Amino acid sequence: MNALYFMTLFYVYMEKDIYILGIESSCDDTSAAVILNGKVLSNVVANQKIHQEYGGVVPELASRAHQQNIVPVIDQALKKAKISKEQLSAIAFTQGPGLMGSLLVGTSFAKSLAMALDIPLISVNHMQAHILAHFIEEETQDKPNFPFLGMTISGGHTQIVQVNDYFDMEVIGETIDDAVGEAYDKSAKVLGLTYPGGPLIDKYAQLGNPKAFQFTKPNVKGLNFSFSGLKTAILYFVQKHTKENPKFVQENMNDICASIQYTIIGILIDKLKKASKETGIKEIAIGGGVSANSGIRAALKKGEFKFGWTTYIPKFEFTTDNAAMIAIVGYLKYLQEDFADSTITANPRFAIS
Fold first, then answer.
1. Which of 216, 266, 291, 334 is at 20 to 30 A from 38, Cα to Cα?
2. How far apart are alpha carbons 187 and 231 in whole angstroms?
3. Averaged pLDDT of the chain
4. Cα 180 from Cα 82, distance rounded (Å)
5. Secondary structure element (H or E) that encloses residue 22, with its range
6. Contacts with 303 (C-beta within 8 Å, 6 or more apart), sequence order
7. Which residue in 98, 136, 146, 116 sits closest to 22, CA to CA?
8. How many Cβ atoms from other residues are within 10 Å of residue 156's Cβ?
9. Strand 19-24 with 30-36, pairing
10. What domains appear along the chain, each with residue ranges and CATH number?
11. Crossing angle of helices 248-279/294-307, nearest 10°?
């Protein structure tokens, strides 16, 4: 049993309530959450719909919106948790990776509030948080056993991580160009769908034939991914067929989306199979916004029967960017007394290991 386990027992034995305020501002969602001894009391998220007009996140607009949202979001999180700021034990915030302007808003606010309250400040890696969201105390959510393989799939990241302990992680595979979420959104844009397009492709895919159209999977060595070639192939495919039939997309939307999703999921599962075989690890946990995709969840469940995996899928509210996952990492670091000082700065390229 590791030191963190005994530290947790110590705090429980001493009956010390640990309230952690988590602040997430890595991209376009402003979020604040409060957890008590690992259990979520509140998890408030303010979305920025303005980016829909541009078909993607505009960094400058995102940072401005964070400045407007961060105070009311934190205030609401504290009220929903039914505690005052004076009861907080520590403040955890996303240090990176992410958009620099967005990260600066959360980092600056967290540092100022921690200093004003004279409580510890805890920096959190956003990608670690997606993985450690599985350790939120939730009755309906099982926790993976170490070691396990964590697949983080989102709009900006695609990684396979070998997780040996809470803070012993190694990236063993990642995208060499575009993330899977971007592949979804850019494909949706080609089809004339609104941003964010991933959920819409998932919606139409459930009504279509996944083998109606065939897209070539990229041939990338090892455990790394590539999605730029697939995006280009989908663009050329749509251009070719709409030239022949202007109503092609409209008439075949369900089948096109199903075929795109089938290809993307195949790429992810193939790499996960390879990683599991090479490491001998059969405990699989996913995280990140794209893990909310119904097709990916279904494919992982099939993996339990086909490959002997034990799979872990977090609650939907803990998959997208949210502060509850930041707060649980803050809690785990608090138990280890792993605190940051006031000189810490935002790091848009913060590596997971």
1. 291
2. 6
3. 91
4. 38
5. strand 19-24
6. 269, 272, 273, 284, 309, 311
7. 136
8. 21
9. antiparallel
10. 3-136+319-335 (3.30.420.40), 148-313 (3.30.420.40)
11. 40
Task: Encode pLDDT of 70-88 as tens digits.
Answer: 999 999 999 999 999 999 9
Q: 225 and 180 in contact (C-beta within 8 Å)?
A: yes
The band of 228, judged by pLDDT with boundaries at 50, 70 and 90, is: very high
What Cα–Cα distance (Å) separates residue 290 from each residue in 167, 249, 252, 330?
A: 23, 24, 24, 24
Tokens encoding 177:
């160009």
Please report the sign of the dihedral spanned by the C-alpha atoms of residue 117, residue 122, residue 126, residue 132.
negative
CA distance 237 to 214: 10
| Closest by CA position to 126, among listed 105, 108, 152, 146 | 152
C-beta of residue 169 within 8 angstroms of C-beta of residue 131: yes
* Residue corresponding to tokens 């946990």: 285
- Cα–chain center distance at 176: 18
pLDDT at 13 over 50: no
CB proximity list for 157: less than 8 A, separation 6 or greater? 97, 127, 174, 175, 179, 181, 288
Q: What is the three-class DSSP state of 341?
A: coil
Rounded CA-CA distance 196/203 in Å is 12
Q: How many CB atoms are located within 10 Å of the residue 9 CB?
A: 11
Identify the burial level of 217 via C-beta atoms within 10 angstroms of its C-beta, where 0-12 means exposed, 13-18 middle and 19 or more buried.
middle
Task: List the beta bridge partners of residue 122.
Answer: 92
CA gap 89, 79 in Å, rounded: 16
Count Cβ neighbours within 10 Å for each residue of 133-147 and write b for 16 or more, e otherwise.
Answer: bbbbebeeeeebeeb
Assigned token pair, 36: 């008590």
Give me the DSSP letters along 146-215: SSEEEEEE-SS-EEEEEEEETTEEEEEEEBSS--HHHHHHHHHHHTTPPSS-HHHHHHHHTTS-TTSS--
- Rounded to whole angstroms, the Cα distance separating 227 from 179 reads 7
Q: Using one digit for the tens of pLDDT, what is the confidence trace for 268-298?
A: 999 999 999 999 999 999 998 888 899 999 9
Q: What is the CB-side half-sphere exposure of residue 154 using CA atoms within 13 A?
A: 23
Query: What does the DSSP assignment read for 79-132?
Result: HHHT--GGG-SEEEEEEESS-HHHHHHHHHHHHHHHHHHT--EEEEEHHHHHHH
